[in-house]
Amino acid sequence: MDIVTVSEKRAALAFSDYLRTQDIANRVEAREGGFAIVLEDPGHAERALQEAREFAAQPQDPKYWQASWQAGEVRKDAVYADTDSGTEAWWQRAGWATRSIAALCLLVFLALELAPDATFDILHFPGALSLEAVQGEWWRLLTPMLLHFGVLHLAFNLLWWWELGGIVEEYQSPWRLLALTVVIALVSNAAQFLAYGPGFGGLSGVVYGLLGYLWLYPFADPRAPFRLRGAIVAFMLGWLALGYTGIFELFGMSISNQGHLSGLLVGGGLGLLLGLVNYRRPAEE
Asked: Does the domain spanning 93-284 belong to CATH 2.60.120.10?
């Protein structure tokens, strides 16, 4: 049973989460012209319709936006409710920017397999953090994020890139995702260089940056239509903490702790800053 159709996706998600906090089970489905709140139990129809009337009268009431914290989910259901499950749904979780970076990583991985020395020589970080070392080879500040030195390394990073990058691109924009990627890569690559020298690679610093960004952005802007599940944050932070124990080295795995931590910090900082700017903008305009 549809109780209301909302034109803006993030408003529909906020109202849906609010209903859940009131023990009114519902889901969000894409419709032509908007997003419908679909009631799962007809017995709640009267209460739900009353809440819908109140929402229509004051859609900017903070109680709707704060409710997403209590719901505690990654909100991607409205985007894919009208698509098939399986491969098609998985592919549609990412837009062109997410897919482009993933494709570049795959192409570079293939190049490393065919011509490892030549590929690494072209893409590795500069030999020093100086204008002289970077001049004429500026791409080296970014391209280490495309280098992966094993199938598991590549698969782990691309899995999280696809999920986290897809959220940023879908709910904000591909240009926001690319801008975040550049800034986080610059910082995390520099941190890894200072710790290990130029012989590193991987997208994990950027992945941790996106984790920090998506995790903290809604704290500054509670109207944001995305939330990360606590289990995802706990797993990624636990993986980061394990890296500092040295346990992975016992299994021959090299973990870039500095890259992960620096990415997480800069991404989280950007999330708080940009979330605050976005939250204040409507009041200033």
From this structure: no
